[in-house]
Amino acid sequence: MVKKTLAVIALAVLALFAVPTAATAAGYVAADKVTVSGSAVAGGTVVVSFAAGAFAAGEQVSFACTGSGTATLSAVKAATATLVKTADASGATSVNVKLPADATGTYTVTATGVTSANVATASITIGAADAGTTGKALASTGNALANTGYNAPMLLIWGAAGVLLLGIALVVVMTIVRRQRANA
């Protein structure tokens, strides 16, 4: 029985240390080397830049963009747009993402170094259109937003909690005293 238990523990420890090495097999590019700029609205163009050192110098970098609708990477348009570009001498590169006119939700741009296997990702979240862009003004009821919270003073809340704790302590002390008197 002891041998089986030790074998199970040894396998569990082995599995625990084997899984993280598989997850770090590819080189991941730090988030501070990825910059998203431009107009993240439906129909807008966003530039995703990867700073120097993100990829090897002169390396081929494969870009993929996924999201709802059809995005355009530089000149390629598809449901999942892909494009291959060459990084400059410092390992930096960028790609233009043209969002569709009916874009909603989040788009993910993934850049993968062909030889270094470095992977960088950027998320582009499309903001909701405001009233000015639809041409229709929002109707105003003249009322403020509904109050969904409880506006009690914090002193009252802490005081009530203190009284509750004192009551519990009193019950515990009275129980202990009663038991001691019964046993005496």
Give structural attributes:
Immunoglobulin-like; alpha+beta; 2 domains
Task: Walk me through this protein's architecture.
The protein has 184 residues and is an alpha+beta fold. It has 2 domains: 23-129, Immunoglobulin-like; 153-184. It contains 3 helices and 9 strands; from the N terminus they run αβββββββββαα. The strands form 2 sheets. A 5-stranded antiparallel β-sheet has the order 1-2-7-4-5, with no helix packed on it. Strands 6-3-8-9 form a 4-stranded antiparallel β-sheet, with no helix packed on it. A hairpin with a 5-residue loop joins strand 8 and strand 9. It is elongated, with a radius of gyration of 30 Å. The chain starts with a helix and ends with a helix. The model is unreliable at 21-25 and 131-142 (pLDDT under 50).
Give a concise summary:
This protein is an alpha+beta fold and 184 residues long. The protein has helices at residues 2-23, 131-134, 154-183; strands spanning 34-38, 45-50, 60-66, 71-73, 76-78, 81-86, 93-98, 106-113, 119-125. It folds into two domains: 23-129, Immunoglobulin-like (Sandwich), CATH 2.60.40; 153-184.
Ordered list of secondary-structure elements with their pairings:
Blueprint: H1 2-23, E1 34-38, E2 45-50, E3 60-66, E4 71-73, E5 76-78, E6 81-86, E7 93-98, E8 106-113, E9 119-125, H2 131-134, H3 154-183
Antiparallel strand pairs: 1-2, 2-7, 3-6, 3-8, 4-5, 4-7, 8-9
- CATH second-level architecture of the largest domain: Sandwich
N- and C-termini, Cα separation: 50 Å
* Percent range for β-strand residues: 25-35%
Number of domains: 2
Main sheet: strand order: 1-2-7-4-5
Question: Which structural category do the helix and sheet elements fall into?
Answer: alpha+beta
Which residue ranges are poorly predicted, with pLDDT under 50 across at least 5 consecutive positions?
21-25, 131-142
Order of helices and strands: HEEEEEEEEEHH
Rg, Å, rounded: 30 Å
